[in-house]
Design goal:
The structure is a homotetramer of 107-residue chains.
Chain A lengths: L2 H15 L7 H19 L4 H4 L4 H25 L3 H15 L9
Helix pairs in contact in A: 1-4, 2-4
Amino acid sequence: MDFTELQSRLRAFADERDWHAFHSPKNLAMALSVEAAELLEHFQWLSQPESANVSEQTRAEVAAEVADIQIYLAILADKLGIDIDRAVDDKIAKNAMKYPPGATGLR
Amino acid sequence: MDFTELQSRLRAFADERDWHAFHSPKNLAMALSVEAAELLEHFQWLSQPESANVSEQTRAEVAAEVADIQIYLAILADKLGIDIDRAVDDKIAKNAMKYPPGATGLR
Amino acid sequence: MDFTELQSRLRAFADERDWHAFHSPKNLAMALSVEAAELLEHFQWLSQPESANVSEQTRAEVAAEVADIQIYLAILADKLGIDIDRAVDDKIAKNAMKYPPGATGLR
Amino acid sequence: MDFTELQSRLRAFADERDWHAFHSPKNLAMALSVEAAELLEHFQWLSQPESANVSEQTRAEVAAEVADIQIYLAILADKLGIDIDRAVDDKIAKNAMKYPPGATGLR
């Protein structure tokens, strides 16, 4: 995934539909949260083992929610000038310090 | 972002910390939802224009939440065998049909 | 609202449908979060003034989400032996200390 | 819990702190969603049985989140003129129709 290329595709998509007025970071964060909950909904009554063994139908629906989350994340990062690749690298480096290998803390 | 490469880095990270037992899709969807809300929290009392003009400090904190969401999204997709690049392409194609350019519907 | 009475009604409701196995606090917290996002969805593309002036139709839909949240909150509190009335009184007292009248902090 | 009385207490609380400008239904729905996620966070890495057997410390923290959710729910309902008692009664009646006793559907 080339985020720069994705973001420019999504920017053109929003341009053609006059959506920019709706795409404040506040609204995008809300939309992302709503999509995250739609993902969650698929798993809410499942046991943990069941959640790892979903039907093809559920997997396809979950993939569509994953896409929605990825799309809003890319638009939000674009609006705020956040470099996702770099933010992820920074976070992994930080987590490696915070949770040394072999540590038994959760996450 | 090469998701295959990221997912293999995150898999190694979880291996070294014995986290796989915690990483059921159910739990990962919860964690993703929690991170989405931490992102939301930054914007909850801001007006829409204010949300587009945050301080450098807030922007850095938001970037860290964006990274957490991206990381959980990649791990979840990995666990369920979901190809994020393809899911995003499929969703954009579907949205292009659902919301023709010039349509005035929201989103 | 008499929470004790509501909780006993909801307990009977779950009994009759064999839902208790699904009603772990973990699952109930997920369900509550999903309902909170369904509430959020009604407001995601609205401006703040618009959100205070919704149609009767939207108001009725929002009322149904408010009810879902209230119901899951009561069931969860019941499962964990939490007294909602007392928790609310404690929290208001705590907030009164944390945010003295006239303070300009947000919330 | 007398919601009318609670709502008038919360209205006075917001008056004294000049919070009404922040309390649009949009913002309140965001705040409620954030609190629901803080509740969720307590359970995200727990198994379902563990979530029913939390420590006294966790139970007290969960009670504080339950209170936050109840408080925002009451303020939001107040702002929109929603009668929570009635909305809950309506929803239980509707659920009784939708899920007849003995039905095996989830929830």
